[in-house]
Amino acid sequence: MQQYGVLRGLGAWRLGLWVMMTVGACTVANAASTDLYQAQTVVTGQGEDNRRAAFAACLEDVLIKVSGAFQLRNDARLAPLEARAAEFVAGFDYHDQMSGKPKHDEQGTRDRPYDLTVSFDRVRIDQLLASLNVKPWPGPRPSIAVIVAMTAGGRTFLVASDDRTSDLQRDALRAAAVKRGLEIALPSAAEISKAAIEKTKLNDVQPVAVASWFPGAEVMLFGDLTWDDAELGWVTRWRLDRAGKQYRWQFRGVTFDEAFRRALGGAAQLLSDNGAP
Question: How confident is the model over 247-276, as pLDDT tens digits?
């Protein structure tokens, strides 16, 4: 991993459309690891401009991941910090997504997609959080049992850990969990098939009804997602159960990827005592 010190003379800069085209949505590195101060994003090429944009995107993710404070998302106070994101980077590393494949025409080093993993300085990140009146969320963090129902076109299914029907949703849920530094557990297809619950009313199901799916689970997150043709997005309702208490929130008009990111961000915010989603 390359070491990265303070970059001087960067000046203020803005994330524009070109960033959206060259930097993928930033996802935090393996949630199972103990390193909450690391994030990953996809960039095109290894140019300095793309790297600076990636550092900024990952800085926000790491601040949220370390603290659990999802309210920092799009916080205006982060803009000047993101412009200086390189100052807080301890190291970074590229992985060529097309490793082993020959380069063709313009698909050379400049245009090839890379996974960029960014490690941030722990002391500096903790100092930034303190300046934002937020504290790190220390471990151990509870594993979250996640039960999600998807309804579209008159059909409803639950997201399973091992069923091809929900491959896309399962991958999106796991990516969202990694992004927020959370561990999640999903029910198996066999458990779902034996369940005597009404999938279309999942948000009203009590934890005892699915307790056998997740022995010893301390936290359960229930989600109902229904496709709305008029909005071209999902209408979502969420409920988190912990220690006999329930917390509910909802939002609509989003992709299921964004719905999962926001839902698990909200769960992290609750569990870290940073307030309601």
Answer: 999 999 999 999 999 999 999 999 999 999
